[in-house]
Amino acid sequence: METFLIVGLGNPGEQYKHTRHNVGFDVVEILAQKLGIKMNKHRFRAEVGEGAYAGMKLVLARPQTFMNLSGESVVPLVQWYKPRADRIALVYDDCDLPVGALRVRPSGSPGTHNGMKSVIGLLGREDFPRVRVGIGRQPEGWDLADWVLAGYRTAEERQAAFEAYSAAADALLCIAKEGCEAAMQKYNRKPQKPREPKEEL
């Protein structure tokens, strides 16, 4: 049976739960709940869950190395499960995208994301799909490190983030079942702007 490996990037520990930088962990949690997969294995410094989807063995992983060392967990996971390059997908935050935006890509550079820099640097290639979830740019006066480790500030932001996380989970399953091109067509989107209230005539 073919294996599809989904890795969500984030930081372990209670103080980092549901922060902007932990998008990957939260999306993997949504997937685990949706598919009834228990994240009950500990392998290669990661929390791992195994299940089945679309005739494949589906492996979900959340590295516990802290973000900047993510590759130290991802590389041995890839070596152990031996998925094809297009059977690996990573999900993580992107501060260059507004809250609620998604970008699915079949390959590419890590950009400014330190977790992806670690993964690509140690894996030695960048030809695998990824789903980037927008967390918004830090406001003026904020340090980027403080911003990504902060939570969402308003109910509107939290709702947009939750919808994006759910869509990211669906996009990952679409990559697994239909391929990256199909997922790009369906899920690359900008967040919906609130409708202006109509004036009463």
Q: What is the residue-mean pLDDT, rounded to a whole number?
A: 91
Physical arrangement of strands within the biggest beta sheet: 2-3-4-1-5-7-6
Residue ranges: pLDDT <50 for 5 or more in a row?
none
Could you estimate the helical fraction of the residues in percent? 25-40%
Coarse morphology: globular
SS field, number of helical segments: 6
Order of helices and strands: EHEEEHEEHEHHH
Structural class: alpha/beta
Report the radius of gyration as a whole number of Å: 17 Å
- Quick one: how many beta strands? 7
Strand % is: 15-25%
What is the terminal separation in angstroms? 63 Å
Sheet with the most strands, sense and barrel status: 7 strands, mixed
Draw up the topology in text:
Elements: E1 3-8, H1 23-35, E2 41-42, E3 46-53, E4 56-63, H2 71-81, E5 88-94, E6 102-105, H3 114-123, E7 130-134, H4 144-148, H5 155-178, H6 180-187
Parallel strand pairs: 1-4, 1-5, 5-7
Antiparallel strand pairs: 2-3, 3-4, 6-7
